[in-house]
Write a structure and sequence with these properties.
The chain is mostly helical. 71% of the residues lie in helices and 0% in strands. It has one domain. It starts with a helix and ends in a 14-residue tail after the last helix. Keywords: Cell membrane, Membrane, Transmembrane, Transmembrane helix. Belongs to the UPF0126 family.
Length: 209
């Protein structure tokens, strides 16, 4: 498959996934349509916007490509309609699965774009993680929710591991295959962390001092 077409397909999937995640977050906090649209928008493009500003890719991607807006608005409306008939499963909350998929897709796409701008691999790793987590952080800050990355959840760590794997294996595999490997690592780690409640050690004062 042509790499440009592959990236376009993944971008559409990631945008839909994180927009849906934003609407689910809005439903959790009983927001109205405007609130859901805001969360869907910032969740989808917030991380990529910050990445583009940092690497000098301006105007930012969604300001010159109307397809993002044309994806987010219908996804928001359709998600609201679907939620009227949806009952959350007891173990895997759909918002977490959608968020894990969006994290995996946008983290690798962010790193890939940074590499396309001839940035060194360590910086590409950072840009990938920012792309993956910043939108979700902004979305959570807009609701009474502590962002995943600020808690003991394996969230940012999963993104870091996956994007490092991607930057390594791309030297040995075709770009498309390397991207799929990196995305798979992030998604599997995140879902495994949710299912088995794997936590990252927290920082705290030693009360025995």
């Amino acid at each position: 498959m042509n790499i440009d077409l592959f990236q376009q397909i993944l971008t559409v999937i990631a945008t839909v996934t994180l927009a849906f995640s934003g609407v689910l977050q809005a439903a959790r906090h009983q927001m109205d349509f405007f609130g859901a649209l805001v969360l869907a928008f910032v969740g989808s493009v917030g991380g990529g916007t910050l990445r583009d500003l940092l690497i000098g890719a301006t105007p930012v991607f969604w300001a010159v490509d109307a397809s993002y807006i044309s994806i987010i608005i219908p996804t928001t409306i359709l998600s609201i309609i679907v939620l009227r008939f949806y009952t959350q499963p007891p173990k895997f909350y759909l918002v977490d699965i959608a968020d894990a998929a969006g994290l995996a897709l946008f983290t690798i796409l962010g790193a890939q774009k940074a590499l396309a701008y001839q940035l060194i691999e360590p910086v590409a790793v950072i840009m990938g993680v920012i792309t993956g987590i910043a939108g979700g952080m902004i979305r959570d800050v807009l609701t009474p929710t502590t962002p995943f990355v600020m808690r003991s959840e394996m969230y940012a760590l999963a993104a870091i591991i996956g994007v490092v794997v991607y930057t390594v294996v791309r030297h040995y595999l075709p770009e498309t295959a390397a991207m799929l490997v990196g995305m798979s690592v992030i998604f599997i780690l995140r879902i495994a962390a949710i299912y088995w409640q794997i936590k990252v050690p927290i920082i705290k004062f030693n009360n025995q001092l």
